[in-house]
Amino acid sequence: MFKIIYFKGLIIIFIFRLLYRWRTKTNQIVDSRKTTLEILLLSLLFVGMLVTPLIYVFTPFLSFADYQFPSWVGWTGVVVFTIGLWLFWRSHADLGRNWSYTLELRKGHQLITSGVYKYVRHPMYAAALMLGVAQVLILHNWIAGWSSLVSFVALYFLRVPHEEQMMLNHFGEEYQSYMNRTGRIIPRWFKK
Ligand code: SAH
Which terminus of the chain has fewer CB atoms gathered within 10 Å of its CB, N or C? Predict the structure, then answer.
């Protein structure tokens, strides 16, 4: 049952991403900081989010790594997944044409500081983390459950310092003051 719910969530995410890729396709890129390691981790994340859950749902190959959790854990996962999906959608909507799957600045790039970006600098990564945690709670398997979270955490630590440096170089003072009033993935008011 949980496998089916998870699967439906995945379909929504992928349709959504494709739509945004298509919408931002014509935007010109002026600064790109892709690195091989980042592309590698992004590919790993893709495998963790899609390939391992697909193998898990449709074949018995990963069942050796199953463990048991009570069903309320799965339901908590569904709630976390829903919130993560909402945040994922909102951050795409707020970032609009400035979105990229990798570290890039586009022509006429605007610094977004409103909507969900008013509270945290990386709402999309916060959403991805929530979806990763939800996967752990929904898929009770050492491989299919944990594969997204592990690769995303690695990607997060690699990417965020580079991303912030890129934004600082480009937007200077404006980004610095934005950094002073926001948290990375946890709003500032929780830190005071
Ligand atoms: N880190 C953000 C955005 C992820 S998409 C988040 O988690 O929500 C990655 C691209 O978004 C980067 O290449 C950068 O060009 C762009 N970006 C990141 N923060 C931005 C902001 N506040 N305003 C505009 N573009 C931003």
Answer: C
pLDDT in tens, 58-85: 899 999 999 999 999 999 999 999 999 9
How far is residue 37's CA from residue 43's CA, in Å, rounded to a whole number? Answer: 10
CA gap 164, 178 in Å, rounded: 11
Q: Compute CA distances 130 → 82, 94, 133, 162, whole Å.
A: 9, 18, 5, 22
Site residues for ligand 1, CB cut-off 6 Å: 91, 95, 98-100, 103-105, 111-112, 117, 122-125, 163, 167
Q: pLDDT for 168-192, tens place per residue?
A: 999 999 999 999 999 999 998 765 5
Q: Which of 28, 35, 90, 99 best tests ligand 1's pocket when mutated (most atoms within 8 Å of CB)?
A: 99
Which residue type is seen at 123?
A: P
* pLDDT surpassing 80 at residue 44: yes
